[in-house]
Amino acid sequence: MGSYQKTDATLWTGRKDKGDRFFNKVKVIDLLKEGLPESPKGRTSFALLGFCSDEGVRRNQGRVGAKEGPHALRKALRNKCFHNFSDVELYDCGDVICEGDDLEGVQKLLGEKVALIIKKGHFPIVLGGGHSISWGHYQGLEKAKSCESLGIINIDAHYDLRPLLEGGKGSSGTPFLQIAERRKEQNQPFHYLCLGVQESANTTPLFETAKDLGVKTILATDILSSGTVAYEQVVSSFIESCQEVYLTLCLDAFSFSVAPGVSAPSPFGIMPAHVIDLLDELVASEKLVSFDIAEMAPNFDEGGKTASLGAEVVTRLIQAFRK
């Protein structure tokens, strides 16, 4: 089973000024002791939760290091500025931590904490950690919501639809297959859009699996050649077809020139500007219910580029709720 740990409140310190910075706004919560309060009426409330695990990456034979991702993302967030946030609440709900090789245990624990956050009326922002974060995150959505018409948008170089390992175990390459199988068991449709897919990073059988499951695919090469025009219509139709949307961002979708700190860096990945309009559109739809960031591996992060990028995405997503 995974363990839980409260965030050290001293992490949320920064430049001493009167600015509206994260470290001035975040309230650190111990979910085991004081508990998470209900979201105040008339206020927008966000809850950060860390997923400290790279066991899924290890099982997938990738470069480990993502276990330290949540800490790096918090450090990059603390001095970021936001605006018009007098009626916003920001909570840091601590970390779930993988003990040994018990990936399944920490995924279950993640699901329990995500469900608690949603039931208390907060918007979850889960910081990873390997992309096995998504199977745990989904378990939380399933506990807190009906998920009958849930759409999943994954910004990622990889489909992460790999077959399960021996003994039915998952990895960082299997979360969306696990979700697809669960939804099939529940007689629910599998609505999955993968944006930024690299042809060189996915085998022919994976493309065939995606086709068989009805996955919507946006190739990175199309985005690089055409920009957001490559996905605007597909994304709009996808959002319209769903009642709720879960957004997950794998930082390896981006070019390694801006995101070197990942398990599997992409030389021809997309660029940050390619996702800004998508964030705005999702928030404006009022269907976005949850978000996470995966594959933040600080030990490979030259100059903190990847952590800063991840923190900027979080900041812009929150800011989109204020437009």
Per DSSP, the total helix count is 11
Main beta-sheet annotation: 10 strands, mixed
Share of helix, binned: 25-40%
The count of DSSP E runs of length 2 or more, i.e. the number of strands, is 10
CATH superfamily: Ureohydrolase domain
What does this structure look like?
- The chain is α/β, with parallel strands linked by helices.
- The protein has a single domain, classed as Ureohydrolase domain (Arginase, Chain A, 3-Layer(aba) Sandwich).
- The protein contains eleven helices and ten strands.
- The protein has helices at 22-25, 55-59, 69-77, 103-119, 133-144, 175-185, 204-212, 220-226, 232-241, 273-285, 305-320; strands spanning 3-5, 26-28, 44-52, 88-97, 123-128, 150-155, 191-197, 216-219, 244-250, 288-294.
- Strands 1, 2, 3, 4, 5, 6, 7, 8, 9 and 10 form a ten-stranded mixed β-sheet that branches.
- β6, α6 and β7 form a beta-alpha-beta unit.
- α9 (232-241) packs parallel to α10.
Short note summarizing the structure:
By secondary structure, this protein is α/β, with parallel strands linked by helices.
Topology readout:
Blueprint: E1 3-5, H1 22-25, E2 26-28, E3 44-52, H2 55-59, H3 69-77, E4 88-97, H4 103-119, E5 123-128, H5 133-144, E6 150-155, H6 175-185, E7 191-197, H7 204-212, E8 216-219, H8 220-226, H9 232-241, E9 244-250, H10 273-285, E10 288-294, H11 305-320
Helix pairs in contact: 3-11, 4-5, 5-6, 9-10, 10-11
